[in-house]
Amino acid sequence: MPVITFIEFDGTEHQVDGEQGLSLMETAMKHDIPGIDADCGGSAVCGTCHCFIEAAGELPEIEPQEEAMLGLRPDRADNSRLSCQLRISDDMADMTVRLPEFQM
Ligand code: FES
Hints:
The protein is an alpha+beta fold.
């Protein structure tokens, strides 16, 4: 399983083991990592689980609904993703997930 390193906006790091089938958002919630609100519970309709993926292997394509929500983020970057839309699997590489200054 991949090791996920979450980095809060202030630089605080949290390293956790990924679990097959959990999303990055669910992983952050399970480990009480601050910086992800996930107001919609993972339905890709709130955008409050935005994150920046800094190091990872191949990731699933961005689906249209995720793209629509990311488009509302003023801080969107090339590596922006909704953490609720990325499910952890055995064949994923270790990754670093930076959290934004705030969710909106
Ligand atoms: S939890 Fe709402 S879009 Fe991800």
